Amino acid sequence: MDEIRVTGGRALRGSVVIQGSKNAALPMMAASLLHRGVSVLRGCPRITDVYCMEAILRELGAKTWWNGKNLYLDCTKADRTELSEKNTEKMRSSVIILGAMLGRSRKSSIGYPGGCVIGKRPVDLHLYVLRALGASVSEKGNRIQASCGRLKGTCVRFPKRSVGATEQALLASVLAKGTTVLYNCACEPEIVWLCRYLKGMGAEIEGEGGDCIRIRGVEELRGGDIMVPADRIVAGTYLCAAAATRGRILIENPPEGELDSFLKLYREMGGQYEGRSGKLIADGRGVRFSVPFLETDVYPGFPTDLQSPLLAVLATIPGESHIRENIFEDRFRLAGDLNRMGASVRVCGRDAWIRGTESLRGCRVSARELRGGAALVLAALAARGETVIGGYSYIRRGYEHICSDLSGLGALIKENTGTVLYENIQIQEKNIIN
Ligand code: UD1
């Protein structure tokens, strides 16, 4: 059944705790491979992408287990060097395991990464930086093969900013011989969190959060132990839910300082917010102004991952808005469904013009990827009548409790997961301590 049913029309009210960040947890999991022992990620989100990375580590020989929300990774024996396509093709960020495998075992053969279809998503920058560090890399059919002696520190300038390729470089260089200097790095908060985790393991890194990162390679790393930060995209999604329904919510654990570009726009749309005692109160009751022009950009610009949730808000605001997507070229796939709900979204390449309406209506729609799927849930919350959103499994890749979180805020929402959608969940459930 794999669907969510929403009866819309209720303004959200109440408070919500934000789950741990998917995009921070995944590279930390890969980094755990760099220590031959146990590492722990506290407050790790129990989402299918995390289960997929867990399955990848197990395939390499790691033991993994959960204690409540804490994920333990014992990589003492994770010395296998081949990964089947089965797990890597499920998730784009599986590719960052390459750098960690090379750092640890000096050899890696993995299936080509898959993931959400939101554009071409090449891996050339990942392979470019591994080659620069001394790996020989080849792409054969559906596989990427790489090998090296000990990787060697070097200076690398990325021709384009990439979150994943910056993470790849960090994972490959922390155990390399000598110093690596990376120019034109991504500055996203997840890079800073990964560095914080690696530094806790004993890595020597400077400059993260800026565009030049310097890494002095060390001989070995100790076990990692970190609290996974709140997910800024999930927080932004719920702020959009409050805006789309003209509600007022309190976020108990907002990602401090990571949502500035979004909050600025929130205010321009007529919303208000206030930080109080480390919490964030967002009042979307006054949201009514369309957005003449907004483009997505690398951090600290407006995040591409919040572009779809924003589209759902704009679909509720009369007047014309204009959004340009600069990061992934195929991120307007929900436009057709928003139009069937009564909005008017016209897409031309990287641009979308949105004419919203206060009377969206429920119908049957389909999630086709993670963030676009979540955005359809938001549109459904604002619509009159019932909306059935198919493709719930896409949404579960990144949202741990979207239905219970929103129902806790007063939404009428039910999930139907039907059969087990991801085989690793079965492995997982057997593996829970409490
Ligand atoms: C990460 C996030 C994703 C977010 C994106 C941008 C994770 C698991 N995912 O994805 O949620 O939307 O950052 O903030 O953290 N590119 C290349 N060659 C490469 C790599 C990337 O051309 O080798 C291009 C991409 O096609 C895209 C741009 O660079 O146009 C940015 O992509 P990148 O920052 O790498 O995104 P991801 O790391 O895949």
* Helical content band: 25-40%
Number of helices: 15
How many distinct folded domains?
Answer: 2
How far is the N terminus from the C terminus? 28 Å
With strands numbered from the N-terminus, the spatial order across the biggest sheet is 21-22-1-23
- Mass-distribution shape: elongated
CATH architecture of the largest domain: Alpha-beta prism
- In the CATH scheme, the class of the largest domain would be Alpha Beta
Q: Beta-strand level of the residues, as a percent range?
A: 15-25%
> And the CATH topology of the largest domain?
UDP-n-acetylglucosamine1-carboxyvinyl-transferase, Chain
Would you tell me the overall average pLDDT?
A: 93
In terms of per-residue confidence, which ranges show pLDDT below 50 for 5 or more consecutive residues? Answer: 419-434
Largest sheet: 4 strands, mixed
The value of Rg in angstroms is 21 Å
Give the names of the bound compounds.
Answer: uridine-diphosphate-N-acetylglucosamine
Task: Report the count of strand segments.
Answer: 23
